[in-house]
Amino acid sequence: MDPRSAYVHIPFCHRRCFYCDFPVVPLGDRADGATSGSVAAYLSLLHQEIATGPGGPPLATVYLGGGTPSMLSSAQVAGILEALARRFGLAPGAELSLELDPASFDEARLAGYLAAGINRVSLGGQSFDDAVLLDLGRRHRGADLREAAGWLRRAYRRGELASWSLDLIQGLPRQDAAHWDGQLSAALALEPPHLSVYDLSIEPGTVFERRLAQGNLALPPEDLAADLMDLTWARLTAAGYGHYEVSNYALPGHASRHNRVYWSGAGWWGFGMGATGAPRGRRRAHPRTRAGYAEALSASLALADAGEGMPFDERLMVGLRRREGVNMERLARQERLETPQLEDLRQRLAAYERRGLLCIEGPRWRLADPAGLALSNGVLREMLAWWEELEQELAPAP
What we know:
Elements: E1 5-10, E2 12-13, E3 25-26, H1 37-52, E4 59-66, H2 74-87, E5 90-100, H3 107-116, E6 120-126, H4 130-136, H5 142-157, E7 163-170, H6 177-189, E8 194-199, H7 207-214, H8 224-238, E9 242-245, E10 248-250, H9 257-264, E11 269-271, E12 276-277, E13 284-285, H10 290-298, H11 312-320, E14 326-327, H12 328-334, H13 339-348, H14 350-354, E15 358-361, E16 364-367, H15 371-374, H16 376-394
Parallel strand pairs: 1-4, 1-11, 2-3, 4-5, 5-6, 6-7, 7-8
Antiparallel strand pairs: 8-10, 9-10, 12-13, 14-16, 15-16
Helix pairs in contact: 1-2, 1-10, 2-3, 6-8, 11-16
């Protein structure tokens, strides 16, 4: 089935955050995306890709991510949505999301985005603590975040914005439970309909990786992560938020429709440098540099399908990240696995099941909320190790 969702990557940032390994292009703190020649050249390539792609049914969700999409002017954002509408059409009531950075827009620019058709915003706050934001390499400060959230809240109350989300990171340098509890209180005071709470991950090639190797990164103890997730779950569920995915909480009716596409294993289009898509069940990844992206388009390779469906281990991973879990019997049938092989996996995870962290209810396997979801990385690591061993057993002899 042709996808009804599209992700569009806007790679430009004022600066690269110290934890970031995304495909981004820092332009400097004074850069203006509306007048930048680099941005204009990139948007030309992006429009070319959208216009010459295969097309499909009207899109039910569109997500403009990055990078910092709010470096673009409202006219540039409108141009992208218009290009998608020409090529695919936009379904009535489509969810049209835009990532915003608190230091890159004001209330007037927000009004322009809403006039362009954006109806959902994801605000990349990460922290309210100025010292932590400085440690992260972020450009905004706590006061900027609160002001930006105030603009979104007013637009939402006026009915100009269907929903908005606030992003936070837990497990940051020098963080403890009391500090994190204060961060959650600050977030709840802003009344976001949706909250994304991510664990800090140290990625290769980042400033944080170098600092960690040098002994200059004071991370919290590893056993604190589960405590912080428990605290998050307790505070947010008490406030009426549903925990519908490992990192995501929403008030009723505000779960991200676009993100659920990823976690359900459904297909989506990916446009732009570094974007990944899975149209028609086939995985494809775009070059992570501007030069590579331009070369692929000019060579008419245009980011062709990679020729493979979503691998079993990835389908398993995205399924178990969701509150409802995954139908393991169906997955096993799709992969042509035998019952003894699935039983072997269940025995391998028996300790998690005995502790009530992994719930097996007929064909459906899910992680208990919140304790099992807090330990999802451990469960998934064990599952992926099992799958790697099984692949080696099933591989044809040389």
